[in-house]
Design goal:
By secondary structure, this protein is an alpha/beta fold. The N and C termini lie far apart (54 Å).
């Protein structure tokens, strides 16, 4: 099997017309069961004046209202512990995996036994598309337990026949030990953790020649498809770096770059993907940026109908050079709507700051954006803190160059604070790059 290009060629190369017919049949099944078995969805569809039998084409999904994470939180609070969007009976429950809660109260997601099988199969498929093979030694740096990525990738690696090192998102020294002594060939982690591991390897006197790593699949936060960040991970670990995407409410690890690295591929036999203009709520044209909206086609326990992810992306049905026919999002996830920084009329995302900083080899991977308000003048300030690998007192014109680059990229001229290497906190999970103190002062954002 290891010499096969595709994990499931019949599915991955399915003709688009055949794929859309499969999606339509599964969408009808899903909407009908949600209407009949979930008071939450039945109320929403009734309010929209929509009945399951009105699904005649895939375009009819637009008549179903989107559902947001906040609405799920409110439903869960009103009807604890799981809300009424759970469709499967309690007898079918197999696992529970809430969202991380990094942006609010965690939302409970339940998997049935069949859901576990589907999630495992899809994850194995997308890992295969990035070049993972049965003889690989998988070093899993995703969190285990309630957070889903560690579990789903573990199940998938088992199915692929890999040797798994289930370390999780901690014990950095153990990661270093296993990388250098056992000879892991594939690393799974968040981009922030991967960069931290690379930094610790360098500080320990190791080079990429001391590693057997050949690939890394990085998700949980954006950055992998930013050229400067990808280069840092690839140079620091001696690998090819692939973007890996998932959401707790939808699927922990269900989209990934293939070896062509032309955007993340969606498993469209299990998920119906839309990209919606948040202003008009109409579908975006191919290649246009909008909000990612996803509908479960096969999820049994807690299916989502038109889940508003709040992630910006693009979508194209154009066949990839790899031969797969399922849709792609070139560039991956471009940013989250709730991560947008609005400062003096300008709008930008932390990933844009990241792209500037990581062009500078003399800077470390860490940075922080601080927004605050001067107490005396009432004027908002934007400060970007970076770490310099040399003596900050000898950084010369670095601050001026950075301010110029930020002005060109962000339309913002921030204060640049250059500090010593190691001054900023490292993370083994999702990095928190933005601190907005304006809200704490009661000031408008």
């Amino acid at each position: 099997m290891s010499d096969q290009k595709f994990y499931d060629s019949k599915t991955e190369m399915m003709d688009r017309s055949e794929l859309k017919a499969l999606q339509l049949g599964r969408l009808r099944w899903q909407v009908e069961r949600c209407y009949n078995l979930s008071p939450f969805y039945r109320e929403r569809l009734n309010q929209a004046g929509f009945k399951p039998e009105q699904i005649r084409t895939l375009d009819d999904i637009r008549r179903i209202p989107v559902v947001t994470k906040q609405e799920l939180r409110e439903e869960q609070k009103a009807h604890p512990p799981f809300g009424r969007y759970t469709v499967a009976s309690a007898a079918q429950f197999a696992e529970i995996h809430p969202s991380t809660g990094t942006t609010g109260i965690p939302v409970n997601t339940i998997w049935s036994e069949q859901d576990v099988k589907n999630i495992t199969d899809v994850t194995a498929r997308v890992m295969w598309s990035a070049g993972v093979r049965p003889n690989d030694i998988i070093q899993n740096g995703f969190s285990y337990g309630l957070w889903v990525a560690g579990m789903s990738t573990h199940y998938a690696a088992q199915k692929l026949g890999c040797f798994i090192l289930p370390i999780g998102a901690s014990m950095t020294e153990r990661h270093i030990e296993y990388l250098t002594q056992i000879g892991s060939t594939v690393l799974l982690a968040t981009p922030s953790f991967a960069l931290y591991i690379a930094e610790r390897l360098r500080q320990g006197g190791y080079s990429t020649q001391d590693l057997k790593l050949r690939k890394g699949l990085f998700g949980g936060e954006g950055g992998t498809e930013a050229p400067s960040t990808r280069k840092r991970m690839e140079d620091g670990l001696g690998i090819k770096a692939y973007d890996f995407f998932g959401l707790a409410e939808i699927g922990p690890t269900f989209a990934c770059e293939c070896e062509e690295q032309e955007g993340i591929h969606w498993a469209e036999d299990h998920y119906l993907v839309e990209v919606i203009d948040p202003g008009t709520m109409e579908p975006c044209a191919p290649g246009e940026t909008g909000i990612l909206v996803i509908t479960h086609l096969t999820r049994e326990a807690t299916p989502m109908l038109r889940y508003w992810t709040n992630d910006y992306t693009t979508f194209t049905e154009e066949r990839c050079r790899c031969g797969r026919t399922h849709g792609r999002s070139p560039g991956g996830i471009l940013g989250r709507a709730d991560d947008m920084v609005i400062y003096k009329g300008a709008k930008f995302y932390p990933v844009q700051v990241e792209q500037v900083i990581r062009k500078y080899p003399e800077l470390t991977n860490e940075f922080k954006i601080i927004l605050d308000t001067d107490q005396e003048s009432g004027i908002d300030r934007c400060t970007i803190i970076v770490e310099y690998t040399g003596d900050p007192g000898r950084s010369g014109q670095l601050g001026d160059r950075l301010r110029k680059d930020f002005k060109e990229s962000l339309n913002v001229t921030p204060v640049v604070d250059i500090c010593t290497e190691g001054a900023l906190e490292r993370t083994t999970f999702k990095a928190k790059r933005l601190e907005d103190r304006r809200r704490l002062l009661g000031m408008p954002g």
